[in-house]
Amino acid sequence: MQTVLFHETIFGPIHSRRLGVSLGVNLMPNDGKICSFDCVYCEAGYNAQGAGKSGIPSREAVKKGLSRKLKAMSEAGEQLDVITFSGNGEPTLHPQFKDIVHDVLLLRDRYYPSVKVSVLSNSTMLSKSAVVEALKKVDNNILKLDSAVAPTLRAINQPASSGVLPEGVIADLKKFDGKCIVQTMFLRGEHNGKKIDNTTDAEVNALIEAYKEIAPQEVMIYSIDRKTPEENLEKVSKEELEAIGKRIEAAGIKVQVNA
After folding, report:
1. Does a structural domain hold residue 2?
2. Which terminus in the chain has less CB density within 10 A, N or C?
3. 64 in a structural domain
4. Which residue range(s) make up the domain with 39?
């Protein structure tokens, strides 16, 4: 079974094809996964592997670990482009997410004031005002929308709650009044005997209409880059991603293609 990638609360830095040199902040367990989605493409594996035994890190542990790492990197003159909330599950599930974002911003200002703070979120916790408030404060508020068609979204993301539907996600994303980046994973393949494909004309058109409603500062599109828990998935080619990107651009939306 494919299992979690990150075994530390503060990990990296690693090179992100979307964000540059990134220092990661993992607010989920170091030996398990907790997420409100169970995406077929998740590089951290399926939720069935369990939450592990270490538990989620405390606010103080995150603060101490990040302070120690940033201090060491700064003193060594190491390059850093971004501090990214990512890891073994959905970061906004942490009960002290808002407070931790506050701490991270202060530490960023102390050690690397020009560095961006990013959050990679699956958009499922936006009913919580504290989460929305925190996300409005970060530099890159990157929110997932992999399909605007309900059966496809459910097939790709496998949400824990039956109430997660595209129309609800779109309404939540509109709360940011454009201060967000929408991230979409394009793929095709098969899962549990059912075909999955969010690259069709109907799927792309539905996403474009959703992007127009949300009016984000940018849309990031990409495809599979690492091993996935579902083996019957196909990476979308650079040429096809670029063609989808041109369609999005033609609708007046800024797009970043990460092929």
Report:
1. no
2. N
3. yes
4. 10-258
The answer as to whether 3 is a domain residue is no
Q: What is the pLDDT along the chain (259 residues), one digit of tens a residue?
A: 778 778 999 999 988 766 789 999 999 999 999 999 999 999 999 999 999 999 999 999 999 999 999 999 999 999 999 999 999 999 999 999 999 999 999 999 999 999 999 999 999 999 999 999 999 999 999 999 999 999 999 999 999 998 899 999 999 999 999 999 999 999 999 999 999 999 999 999 999 999 999 999 999 999 998 899 999 999 999 999 999 999 999 999 999 998 7
HEC string for the chain: CCCCCCCCCEEEEEEECCCEEEEEEECCCCCCCECCCCCCCCCCCCHHHCCCCCCCCCHHHHHHHHHHHHHHHHHCCCCCCEEEEECCECHHHCCCHHHHHHHHHHHHHHHCCCCEEEEEECCCCCCCHHHHHHHHHCCEEEEECCCCCHHHHHHHHCCCCCCCCHHHHHHHHHHHCCCCEEEEECEEEEECCEEEECCCHHHHHHHHHHHHHHCCCEEEEECCCCCCCCCCEEECCHHHHHHHHHHHHHCCCCEEEEC
The total number of residues written for the chain in this structure: 259
**5 within a domain of the structure (yes/no):** no
Q: What is the CATH number of the domain that holds 88?
A: 3.20.20.70
